[in-house]
Amino acid sequence: MKKGILSIVVCAGILLTGTGLFPTANAQTRAKRGTAVSRSSDTKKPPVSDAKRSSIQETFRARGAGQLSPTDACTTRTPVTLGQPVDANLTSDDCRLTDGTYIDYYTFQGTAGQAISISMVSGSFDTYLYLLDNTGVTIDENDDSGTGTNSRIPIDGGVMTLNYTGTYTIGANSYAQSTGSYILSLVTDARCATAPVMYNQAINGSLATTDCPVNFADQSYYTDLYTFNGITGQQISIAMSSTAVDAYLVFHTPTGAGSLGDDDSGGGTNARIPASGLFTLAETGIYTIETSSSGPAQVGSYTLTVNGPAAAPVSVSGKVLTSDGRGLRNATVSMTNSAGTTVTTTTSSFGFFTFDSVPSGDTYTFRVNSRLFRFATRTVAVTDNVTLPDFVGLE
Ligand SMILES: [Ca+2]
Ligand SMILES: [Ca+2]
Fold first, then answer.
1. Where a domain ends, among 267, 287, 307?
2. Are 295 and 324 contained in the same domain?
3. Ligand 1 center to residue 131 CA distance, Å?
4. For residue 356, what are the domain limits?
5. Residues 172 and 34 in one domain
6. CA of residue 124 relative to chain centroid, distance
7. Of the residues 88, 207, 248, 374, which has the fewest C-beta atoms closer than 10 A?
8. In the chain, how many domains are there?
9. Do 241 and 318 share a domain, yes or no?
10. What's the CA gap between 80 and 169, in Å, rounded?
11. Backbone φ, ψ for residue 295 (5° rounding)
12. Using one digit for the tens of pLDDT, what is the confidence trace for 197-227?
């Protein structure tokens, strides 16, 4: 393998070509652009053998088990830098998969929530591209989503969101057994940054020409990206409404399986996933929402709401002690929420107290009243069941 780093930095915008949104889609069950393992779905060629994928995993397993010699081409993994295209060659000395094709491996450090795209371009062979996790499991793969027989991840332009922080591997491969030069690019686009979204809270956003561009049929669409942490079994709904643009939502699951797009399920031209009721999450991880428009180049304000689980009530407990450390009975403990509402309780014979059914997600101030001692006041943000530090009487 012979390669050098090109000094030019490819503008991410150039790489954001390909197919994009479903401008006329109105069925929320329609597949989204760029499903996780989208191999060959964009080509009329026969798909590559699944043996390719297992062959890669076997390489990772053998490498991890120290079963590959240091001179084995399959041990080589070259770091690739964001924004610095790599000019390299597939040669007959490279790591070989069971289907006879050669593969070069590259690694990079990714961050959960980071938006990236990868492209592989060759003038001498039909490229095939893999994005792998740190155990060699395929996160995404692509044959021809670039121009001609070139490859691009994600499949439909735009960016994909990484779902963990750590090492990722890119496999630069070919559709059929071939050798020759290629250029590999790992890029991000500052316009495609993601923002965290909170449940049950309307977000006022706006689509602008400076937003993340997604291209479809030579038209540009603008999109904002939001992420949230979902848990298997959680039930959510996502709604985007706008009087300025024809709202369009794309919902990406952590692995890409079961991702959805929706145009008008929210009534009028508003988008909603699902069309009614709630959607049950099938995975735990980072979900990404794209707020975009159904028509090209639309700009203007919109409102996004992700309805999720209401914060569950929790309990807050603690202990009140005399200045010499004995439990203090019959002391009055008060708890005041951020709106100024106060509830009280009394300590048990050993000085314990508990407040049950406390709405989480608020800040509370706790005061202890006793004829015998003074106590410091405590203010605590309550997000889960909590035991407060002991209240110890002051002399
Ligand atoms: Ca290809
Ligand atoms: Ca719409």
1. 307
2. no
3. 15
4. 314-392
5. yes
6. 35
7. 374
8. 3
9. no
10. 9
11. -95, 155
12. 877 889 999 999 999 887 666 677 899 989 8
Same domain? For 174 and 272 the reply is no
How far is the C-alpha of 1 from the C-alpha of 92, rounded, in Å?
9
Distance (Å) of CA 106 to CA 1, 76, 129: 12, 8, 11
Last residue of some domain: 307, 332, 367? 307
Are residues 208 and 175 both part of a single domain? Answer: no
Starting from the CA of residue 293, give the closest ligand. 2
Provide the residue type at 163 as one letter: N
Say yes or no: 14 and 112 in one domain. yes
Say yes or no: 297 and 350 in one domain: no
72: which 2 tokens? 């084995």
Residue 271 · residue 32 · CB < 8 Å: no
Report the candidate in 119, 118, 133 with the shortest Cα–Cα distance to residue 169. Answer: 133
CA of 326 to the centre of ligand 1 (A): 75
Question: What pLDDT digit, counting tens, does each position of 354-378 carry?
Answer: 999 887 767 789 999 988 899 999 9
Query: Which sign does the torsion angle of CA 290, 113, 186, 189 carry?
Result: positive
Distance (Å, whole) CA 393 – CA 373: 5
How many Å lie between the centroid of ligand 1 and the Cα of residue 39?
10
What is the distance in A from the centroid of ligand 2 to the CA of 165? Answer: 34
Convert the pLDDT of each residue in 311-334 to its tens digit. 677 899 999 999 999 999 999 999
d(CA 173, CA 39): 13
pTM: 0.54
Whole-Å CA distances, 163 to 6, 80, 288, 361: 29, 19, 10, 26
Q: What sign does the dihedral 65-67-70-71 (CA atoms) show?
A: negative
Determine which helix (DSSP H) or strand (DSSP E) holds 51, and give its type and residue range: helix 50-64
Q: What is the 3-state secondary structure (H, E, C) of 28-49?
A: CCCECCCCCECCCCCCCCCCCC
Q: Which ligand is nearest to the CA of 122?
A: 1
User: In terms of domains, do 88 and 233 share one?
Assistant: no
Taking the C-alpha atoms of residue 28 and residue 262, their distance in angstroms, rounded to an integer, is 4
What are phi and psi for residue 74, nearest 5 degrees?
A: -75, -10
